[in-house]
């Protein structure tokens, strides 16, 4: 997580005849967006897709699975009670990518997305397809995880969510298969 943009640039430099795409979530994007400047400087036809879900969605799911209740994984202001349940942060990563020199396409519908991807596919300059996804404010929330991550959960916590997560962890540990 965080290496996708520089890795794509490395592939483009090593194999300039190949089309190279980097698909990143907003959390990953925030870790290393400055390398976009390198793609612009070198006139590399980097194709970047940013999925903006206004938070660390996969890490939030992992946080929930280990009893940490998605703490700090949404881009939100703090509420008066100190929780991260206030209004959404005004994060616009498409504007950020544009400020670094990328051409940014902002599809709003599935049809727009198909057209934006086709446009980016033929682009000869660094091009970003910026996709705003639904958030828990507009849908029931992210889908449940489809896989289990072996991330240990505190054994001694008294928080109900952590106790329940530890019980679930213990069930998965006993059922896991060792491949080596």
User: Largest sheet, described in full?
Assistant: 4 strands, parallel
Distance between the termini: 25 Å
Q: What sequence of helices (H) and strands (E) makes up the elements?
A: HEHHEHHEHEH
CATH uppermost class of the domain at 4-54 and 91-143: Alpha Beta
Q: What percent of the residues sit in helical stretches (DSSP H or I)?
A: 25-40%
Placed side by side, the strands forming the largest sheet appear as 1-2-4-3
Which oligomeric state applies? single chain
Tally of strands: 4
Poorly predicted parts: none
Question: Structural class of the secondary structure composition?
Answer: alpha/beta
Give me the CATH fold name of the domain at 4-54 and 91-143: Rossmann fold
Protein traits:
7 helices, 4-stranded parallel sheet, 180 residues, single chain, alpha/beta, 11% strand, Rossmann fold, 4 strands
What's this model, at a glance?
This protein is an alpha/beta fold.
What this model shows, in words?
The protein has a domain at 4-54 and 91-143: 3-Layer(aba) Sandwich (Rossmann fold), CATH 3.40.50.970. It is built from 7 helices and 4 strands, in the order αβααβααβαβα. It has a 4-stranded parallel beta sheet, with helices on both faces. With 180 residues, it is an alpha/beta fold. The mean pLDDT is 88. The two termini are 25 Å apart.
């Amino acid at each position: 997580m965080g290496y996708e943009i520089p890795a794509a640039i490395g592939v483009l430099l090593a194999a300039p005849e190949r089309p190279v795409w980097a698909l990143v979530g907003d959390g990953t994007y925030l870790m290393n967006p400055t390398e976009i400047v390198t793609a612009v400087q070198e006139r590399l036809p980097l194709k970047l897709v940013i999925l903006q879900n206004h938070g660390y969605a996969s890490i939030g799911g992992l946080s929930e699975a280990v009893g940490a209740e998605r703490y700090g994984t949404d881009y939100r202001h703090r509420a008066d009670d100190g929780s991260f349940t206030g209004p959404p942060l005004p994060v616009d990563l498409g504007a950020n990518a544009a400020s670094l020199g990328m051409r940014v396409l902002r599809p709003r519908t599935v049809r727009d997305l198909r057209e934006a991807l086709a446009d980016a596919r033929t682009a000869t300059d660094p091009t970003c397809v910026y996709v705003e996804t639904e958030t828990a404010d507009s849908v029931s929330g992210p889908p449940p995880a489809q896989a289990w991550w072996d991330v240990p959960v505190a054994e001694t916590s008294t928080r109900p969510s952590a106790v329940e997560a530890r019980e679930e962890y213990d069930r998965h540990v006993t059922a896991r298969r060792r491949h080596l």
